[in-house]
Amino acid sequence: ALYHSKTTSRGRTTVYSTEHEARIRSERAIESALQNADYNQEFEVHFQPVVLLPERVVVGFEALARWDNPVLGKVPPDTFIAIAERTGLIHRLTVALFKKAVSQITALPHDLYLSFNLSAHDITNAETVAALLEIIRGNGIDPRLVTFEITETSVIDSYEAAETCLRTLRAAGVKLALDDFGTGYSSLGYLHRLPIDCVKIDKSFVAGLREPVASGVVTSILNLCRSMQINCVVEGVEESDQLAVLETMQCRYVQGYFFSRPMPFDEVRNTLASGATI
Ligand code: C2E
Ligand code: CA
Ligand code: CA
Ligand code: CA
């Protein structure tokens, strides 16, 4: 049965789904594994190319965290990032991941930009912001080649603290991108109020590109970005006909499985070294 009841210490009977219990159990396991993880060994950064149209050249990479734990196996980033945030481990994790991503990208003989995801806690924590900027300085990477991706939901809770941190980052020369654009409630408001350089259109719109509603939304966002002189990356491009539609819309930056999945660093280096186009 999906549900079973449990008598609590107060003698009350509560109904739990076994699914819910299993989830809590596994969250505990992830939490303790995260607490004891060897951040340098177990975590990797994978890189997904961002492609410029119509030339189809790679101009940068988005860093995406990967965790392979000896006991739990591979845990998806959505899951462990959320748990790291809740348990206060996110600062350590973000710093370790960014360090790795920057040292790898600077090892390449190209001027490619690095886009890195920050979570809500990161962009309200002055210490995290200082550590990120220190890593940029220490590696000698041009800050203009670094973009931090934030989401609207990560700004919402403590807007003022976030705004202060984001302005500090921006003042140091890094770029800011608003991720998952179009999925929230007030994306437009944030675009207006925050110092945003780039918008990433959520992949759900690309998936529905054949329908007039989604394609209308994409066209509108592209036009909005043009008029605000903000760059725009369309995410989640998987098929050639999606790419064809985006090309007719004069979209400049795209990302997605059609070009490449996120790759381990060695693969990035080999691909670039062989001169292969992605
Ligand atoms: P996101 O920032 O929106 O990243 C895009 C996600 O879409 C990635 O999932 C990527 O692998 C996936 N993707 C890329 N191209 C395609 C495509 O063509 N089709 C489809 N269906 N998916 C595509 P991933 O790697 O599982 O990451 C999930 C989320 O976890 C990210 O969403 C981001 O919010 C978070 N995340 C990943 N790495 C980090 C990190 O280092 N720090 C923080 N704070 N969050 C991270
Ligand atoms: Ca992202
Ligand atoms: Ca996204
Ligand atoms: Ca996301």
From TrEMBL:
Residues in EAL domain copies: 23-276
Source domain of life: Bacteria
Entry protein name: EAL domain-containing protein
Organism: Roseibium sediminicola
Full-length numbering of the shown residues: 369 to 646 of 668
